[in-house]
Amino acid sequence: xxxxxxxxxxxxxxxxxxxxxxxxxxxxxxxxxxxxxxxxxxxxxxxxxxxxxxxxxxxxxxxxxxxxxxxxxxxxxxxxxxxxxxxxxxxxxxxxxxxxxxxxxxxxxxxxxxxxxxxxxxxxxxxxxxxxxxxxxxxxxxxxxxxxxxxxxxxxxxxxxxxxxxxxxxxxxxxxxxxxxxxxxxxxxxxxxxxxxxxxxxxxxxxxxxxxxxxxxxxxxxxxxxxxxxxxxxxxxxxxxxxxxxxxxxxxxxxxxxxxxxxxxxxxxxxxxxxxxxxxxxxxxxxxxxxxxxxxxxxxxxxxxxxxxxxxxxxxxxxxxxxxxxxxxxxxxxxxxxxxxxxxxxxxxxxxxxxxxxxxxxxxxxxxxxxxxxxxxxxxxxxxxxxxxxxxxxxxxxxxxxxxxxxxxxxxxxxxxxxxxxxxxxxxxxxxxxxxxxxxxxxxxxxxxxxxxxxxxxxxxxxxxxxxxxxxxxxxxxxxxx
Length: 482
Ligand code: SIN
Prior knowledge:
With about 475 residues, the chain is of the alpha/beta class. It has helices spanning about 45-60, 65-80, 85-95, 100-120, 155-170, 180-195, 210-220, 235-245, 270-280, 300-315, 335-350, 380-385, 400-405, 420-430, 465-470; strands at about 10-15, 15-20, 25, 35-40, 125, 135-140, 145-150, 175, 200-205, 225-230, 250-255, 260-265, 290-295, 350-355, 370-375, 390-395, 410, 415-420, 435-440, 455, 460, 470-480. The protein has a seven-stranded mixed sheet with strand order 14-15-16-13-12-18-19, sandwiched between helices. A six-stranded mixed sheet has the order 9-8-7-10-11-21, with helices on both faces. It has a three-stranded antiparallel sheet with strand order 5-6-22, with no helix packed on it.
């Protein structure tokens, strides 16, 4: 039975646990207490990680799919076995309720299992050639050394959603986790090492916000790195896309959402409220798939609003390790101030907060679950991602008006649609400009779903078989026979 230590205070570079002489403190967002301390890495460590990845690439890619899959399966089993320890660590550095953290560990492990299985299905094609003595084959080969930059809102799942397909396809991966939540990433590195992922195939470079430019330049500027996979804000994603152009890297971006949650007037109110609670309040609203604009049709507006108000008022706020808590703290003061400012701006522009509206009793960065009414499309809160537990309600008349409101932003990650009439739902999901649509559900996230957005919400897909394809290059082989 494995007893490898999960809490690590060193970066993991090319198979070595490395200190750098400078460090960054990791704080519990619920209490402000220090949870751990990790090194600040810079260009030197980035180069060492790329050297290590290049050194192991040939060996790793040459393994059979079954042999690449085996350590991924072992990692997943360890994560499942040590769910409680990983979930507790995750809650301590990220703040989400323990029940959600347990769910995230299972979700994270599921990507490793899924891609371990998909490794064996990295199929190519045989194409009928235009002449009788010609043959055309299309191979899928690993894209090469990859860099992943992951956010703080899902400190484990966003790592494995990139690590799983990278390793399954034969690509070594260098990870830069968010500065707020590096401990879960280092715990995954410890599990990877124990599972037999070879030195260099997975490195974790920890660093502060102030180190991001140094690390970014060293990793993105290195022509040996062939792919970048980023989950985070649209603004940062655009900069990374620009920086990647110099060496024409493959880029996958999973960016901001601004998701519409559309409730048609024939929807089941209880089901729509239950779905809205998940889509809006999971992780205290700090997800890129959070329902950001709740668009409700005239005929059902009052009934839906009243039921939602009651459900929001009943949500329990507090530290994530406390039993029964449903809403944890926001990640830091900056996040809290942003949510506060968006609510204040909406109020100044005529919206009313009929439930909540400010700091919760627990103080700190705890924000009360909030219902905002009379929100219009031109308010900042409709145009920007809230990333907090605030549900802004907007009324609409016809289905066409609802769809126009839903599509009226540059984002297109996900949309939710509630209703009963089959034809209206089909027309609705076909009209929605989004990479993912949840119909009568507030949760679409599973390893099987191609996760990714349209428009300014990103490029590429994670999860599903498409997630593996994103880590491969196509090579056509044209053969002339004698
Ligand atoms: C995210 O917020 O970036 C991911 C959410 C999910 O996978 O459900």
